[in-house]
Each structure stands twice: as C-alpha cells, then as structure tokens.
Write a structure and sequence with these properties.
Two copies of one chain form a homodimer. With 426 residues, chain A is of the alpha/beta class. Chain A folds into three domains: 170 residues, Molybdenum Cofactor Biosythetic Enzyme, Chain A (3-Layer(aba) Sandwich), CATH 3.40.980; 81 residues, Ribosomal protein S10 (Alpha-Beta Plaits, 2-Layer Sandwich); 157 residues, CinA-like (Maf protein), CATH 3.90.950.20. Chain A is 39% helix and 24% strand. Chain A contains 13 helices and 17 strands. Chain A has a six-stranded mixed beta sheet with strand order 2-1-3-8-7-6, with helices on both faces. The longest helix of chain A has 24 residues. At the A-B interface, helix 1, strand 2, helix 2, helix 9 and strand 14 of A face helix 1, strand 2, helix 2, helix 9 and strand 14 of B.
Chain lengths: 426, 426
Amino acid sequence: MASVPLLRTAEIIAVGSELLGSTRLDTNSLYIAERLAGLGIELHAKAVVGDDRADIAAMFREALVRTDLVIFTGGLGPTDDDLTREVVADVLGLPLSIDDSIVKSIEQRFARRGMKMPPVNVRQAQVPHGAEVLANPNGTAPGLLIRHDGHLIVLLPGPPREVNPMIDALCAGPLLECIGTERLYRARLFVAGRSESSVEEAAQPLYSKWRDETPPIATTILASPGQVELHLTIRDPDREHAQVRLLHAQEDLHRAVGEDVFSTDGRLLEEIVGEHLVARGYRIAAAESCTGGLLMARLTDVPGSSRYVHAAVVSYDNEAKVDILKVPRALIEQHGAVSEPVAVAMAEGVRALTGAEVAVAITGIAGPGGGTPTKPVGTVVIAILIPEQPAFVRTFSFVGGRSMVRTQAAQAAMDRVRRLLQSSAR
Amino acid sequence: MASVPLLRTAEIIAVGSELLGSTRLDTNSLYIAERLAGLGIELHAKAVVGDDRADIAAMFREALVRTDLVIFTGGLGPTDDDLTREVVADVLGLPLSIDDSIVKSIEQRFARRGMKMPPVNVRQAQVPHGAEVLANPNGTAPGLLIRHDGHLIVLLPGPPREVNPMIDALCAGPLLECIGTERLYRARLFVAGRSESSVEEAAQPLYSKWRDETPPIATTILASPGQVELHLTIRDPDREHAQVRLLHAQEDLHRAVGEDVFSTDGRLLEEIVGEHLVARGYRIAAAESCTGGLLMARLTDVPGSSRYVHAAVVSYDNEAKVDILKVPRALIEQHGAVSEPVAVAMAEGVRALTGAEVAVAITGIAGPGGGTPTKPVGTVVIAILIPEQPAFVRTFSFVGGRSMVRTQAAQAAMDRVRRLLQSSAR
C-alpha cells in the first residue's frame, strides 16, 4: 500500500446515457459525497458521461490528473453498452481476464432464482490485472478496486441499492486505511419561519470569526421552501477537540438565530412535532383546505406516527367545510372561506369530530387562480388549538407557484404547532 | 457566423461548490437537456465543478476538445467566489472589459428596489472581447455568448428561474440558427399497473423493428414507483414525416401495452383522473389510512382541481374509522383494519359523509412495523365506489420501504379510478 498516498480529493464519474436526458439525475453522488466527507475526502468535481468509449476514457484521464480517488458508478452490466470495466483497464494498460470465482457466484445467484446464467453475464466476471473484487450483496456485478500509480480507482454498479452498501464497506475498509488522522466533522441547524437572508444576517458575524480560527469552521447555508439549513464543518485530527468546537459553534448559532431553530441533529420538522406530541400524550387532527392533505401526508411519513396522528378532514370545497366540519355557512359568507374566523371554526370542527387534543386548520389560495386584490394567491390562514392555550390564528403571505405555496403552508403549520407545544412545555 | 459549424453536440458545466455536497443536485441540466434535445443537439456529458479556478479551466479545456457547444451555469455572481467569466476569458485568451450599459442596467435594477448598487456588482458587467450579452430578465447577472474557433460557449447564471427563460431565448435565436434542418421529435407513453420488465417484454419486438428503419426511432424506458414511461425519439429533417412515424409508433406501442397506458401526451395520472371526473360531472372523496393524505395531496396538486375534489377523511387510527367513517367495530375486529370488508366500509362511510359520487378508500401496512406473516409490510387494500358499477376492491402487495409503499398505493388508487371511469364511459 506504499504506492497509495493520503487520499484528500476525489472525483465521481457516473456512466450512462440515460443520465443525460431530461428526466433522470445521478443521485448516487449525493450519498457518496456524504460518506467521503465523513472521511475528510473532498469532492473536486463530478461528471456524467454517456455510454461512449472515447468520452469515458477522456473523463477518466482528466480525473486522474486532478485527483487521488476516482469513483465510477454504472456501466458494469452484462451488455455491449456497459463499457466502464473495459475502458478503465484500457486507459491504465491493464489486461482483463475472467475470474472463475465471480462466474461461479453469478451462476449461483441465478440458480437461487431457479434460472440459468445467460452467457452474456460472463462479461461481469472480467477483472483488470491486480484489481481487488468488491462484493455486491444486492446485484450480480461485483465492484472493483484498483491501486495504480498513486491513485485509487473504484468501479461500482449503477443502482443505488447496490451502490450504497458497497460505499459503506469501502469507507469502513480500504478508504479508511488511506486517509491519515484528519477527519471531517459536521453539525447542522434547521430553521423555519425565517428567510434565508435574515438567517444569514444573524449568522454572518459568527461565520467570519470561525473562518479565522485554527482549524477553521466552514459554513454553508441552504434554503428550500419553508426551511433554511446551516451546515458547519471542521477538519481536525483531534476528534474531541473538533466536537467540542462544533458544539460551541452550534450553541452560538442557536442563540443568534433563536427559537426559529427547530433541529440541531438532522431531525425533520415532522419528527420534532411527533416527539412533542408523544411527550405530551396528545393526538393531532387536521382540517386541510388548500394543502389538500399535504400536512397529514408529511406527518404520517414518519414511522410510528400512528401513536399520535389521529385523523384529518380534507375539506376542499365550502360544502365540506359546512357539512363535515360544521363551519357556520354565515361565517363563510361574511368573511370568505380564506379568513381567520373560518380557519378557527375549521379547527374547532375537526376537534369536535375527532376528539384529538391538538387541532390544525389550513385554508388559503394556492393559485394559480382564485386570488383577489385583498387576498392574493399565496394568502394562507392557519389556526391551531392546543389544550390550555388560547387559539392561535395567523394569516401568512407565501410567494411562489401553487406547489411552493402548498409546501410552505404545510411547513408553517407544523412549525407553529412545534412553537406552541414548546412554549406550553415551559 | 461562418466560423460556427453545425451544432451537433453539447456539454454542460455547472459551477458551484455547493453542488458537490450531499444535499444539492444540479437540476438546471435537466431543463437544458430537454431544450437542446428539441433542437437535435445531443448532450455528451455534464459536469459539476467547485469554485476553483484550475478545476473550472481544466473542465472547460476538455469540453472544448469533445464538443461544439459548451454551456456554463453558475459562477456569474458579484463575489470573489464567482469565477466563470474570468476563467473562460483566460482559457480563450480574450481580454475582459467593463460594459457600461450593463453597469447602468444593474444600477437601474437596484434603483427600482430603492437601493444603490454595491460596488462589487461591477464585476457582473465584465464582458470578454467579442462576446454577445444575453439579457437576464430575472436577475442582475447577464449571460454571455462567445463564438470562438468553431465553438459556441454560453455563460448563464445559476438560479433556475434565471436560467430557464435565457435558455428558451437562446434556443429560439442563436442556437436555432446553427443546427441545420434536422430536428429531434419525441413522443411519450405513461403506463401504470404493470412492471418495467413486463412493459419492456411487450414493447421489445417493436423497438427492434424501429431501430433498423431510416431514420431510426430510438426508445428509452424509465421506471419510478407505480409508473413506467416509454420515450420515443426520431431525428429527421422532415417535420411531417417524423410526426407521422412517431404517431404510428405510439399507436403500435399503445396496442402492445394495452389499457395500462394512461397517457400519450405527458399528462400525469392525477390530471387524467381529473378530466374523467369533470367529463362525467362527478366529485371525488377519499378515506385514506396508510397513505395519510397522499392521494388527496396528489389530486389537489392539479390547478382547478376544486371543480371535482370534494373532501377526504384521513382515518389514521381505528377510532377514526369507527367514529367518523362509521365502519362497524365488529368488522375491524373480525377481519382486521387492513381487509377488503373494512376498505369497502371506509369507502361507503366517506361517500355517506360527503355525498361525493366517487369514493376511494385505502388501508394498508406501509411499514416498517405492523406487518404479520399473512399481511406483510406492503399489503394495501383499495376500494372504489362509482355510480352504477359494482364496488371495486382489491388487495395489492407493494415492495419497497415506507415511502415507496405509500407512493405506489396512491398511484394504484388513482389508476384504478381511471380504469373504472374509462370503462363506465363505454
């Protein structure tokens, strides 16, 4: 292993013409990037290239110039289109030969399903001279690891369920042995109810301070509808030192951004809300209009949510509000369906119907139609009832198209439930 | 323009270190690939590179060797991190100078919001010698188009809402002028209720025939939970000829795959179901258990769905099934909550509660917990009531994790509503 230097940088090459169209993205690289970051290996670039011999070879040659570790995904199948193995062997000048033990294991795989291995699959048993074979528990194509001229080259299959366990095994074994003592440590804060620029403004003085410390803490800010994420990373040989500094940095940031921070350990808003409900022994019910079930779909996306999710009514038209939720028709006629009195009546209605302790109502105008000068598209009213607290009701103005308005409305409703449960706990 | 040959191949380079982490993907390239395909320009490769001068330069040089058209996205902002303009000018040996008219337009953009342009933004007015400036209606950074040594090089900003209209303008203007008479024409079929391999088996004999025709029709098959897509493309100088051939091919495929095809024009299942409901004057209601609102969220994602979506009940626990949907408790005790009698009773309950003509009920085990030997995780029962038809009820077995089971259940429910409405129309 003397020929392998410390791995510091990596590049990912995804092979497959289907990844160059308008419908598919290479998502393997997200998982790989995350795992490499955990080892302190920095991703320099990633590329997608079609099933073309010359293009794959060119990308590979260039990656070897720039980087220590090159990871290929895809192109290890049994057909003529699957070129990664051959091109890599060719560029490195390594002869390919059939590995009988791989042939046997592929044959067994087919036999277990009562089938005979088709002759084409012998291609998947080709191994460049000197390469190590990486087991693929979820597919026929084994991976390959080549140590060549100071580089590590890894060939993996394409399907995520095959790639992920193989990357895990690599990171726990061959890659771990080549990274020295420094590691990358990370912390995250998730924020709701506040714009990206406002979060940035609050965090900026801390960023600059950390950047000048040794080793520095790097910061990234990411925004999606209704959520802002702050990521902190530090590269340090001393695990304890890194973790203490990250913890302090996280606490400083939490103080600066305040109670808009809802998670410091990667848990999502629906999980946090679920835990507050479980802690209080409350069940939740919802009356959804413009979000059409999105809030409930998010809450029930959490395994075990049946402990606290009771029921919901999607009252998409006014008749449903009147008939099922018993919202007085006069209230709708007087204030309109998108109004604070109607939202509160919807929440009261779903609480009476279901007997849940916590009731949430959402009514709004998601667009593209239905807006008026006083209630433009993006107007959303949220009402929340929680035991021993006055009713919460607020009118929000969200920007963006139909889907963004709906996403932000569901997110804001969950975030308000979180705040109310948090404050009632004090 | 004599120096620009026919554009046949392209490469996209997305610049930005944030695109190399574990949370963000370059999605601009999907839109760009789609628009380029419309002009018959083939994407050879795409790359993501960090905010690093040497890496950007290396990727650019290599792309120039391989391809006619290089499109950059990102790295046109006003800060020191934004390097695309400088690196491209440097690699091509073109001097950069400040374009006063761009400075003026950026100043005006700030002034309209009552602000003064920060001095750093002058960077965004730098133009390589001989470049054309591309208007950016949604942001400060203009795009740039450089014709150099037989290549076209395009620099665009990063945010999708800025990129998309600029790509549209390019495809309608400068790129259109450089592509000769051949165009790429496309057709799609969407299929539900059938596995990818079964669709492939039905389509395979047609594929092989089309591949040998002149010009050939290329085919791609894409699978996602509950849906298989067949894409057909043909490159032809004669628009009418191409469209007639595609139409025939589409009809042949439709015949081969049968009524599992639900869309031949890109419309989604929720839109197709909506149109059937509108045509019949029916309103739809749902009783959702394991999908927790996902079916309704999908149906109401369609603008104008308030014409036919009435209401839904998410009866996530058994009490809600009994209290709100009036499912007899004995039925649940006798057959279990995930059973055909209970699914039918849920559908009847929500129909009685809402008065909707079409009622759908979904009850199942999404996992990870809750499975039994006779009803493993993935068991989902769907019941549907439609006027003048016997009740539909069927037990499905879906594979995959919680999220995949829920997605497939909502998709299967919509697909069954489609089939029942289609057959009732005959």
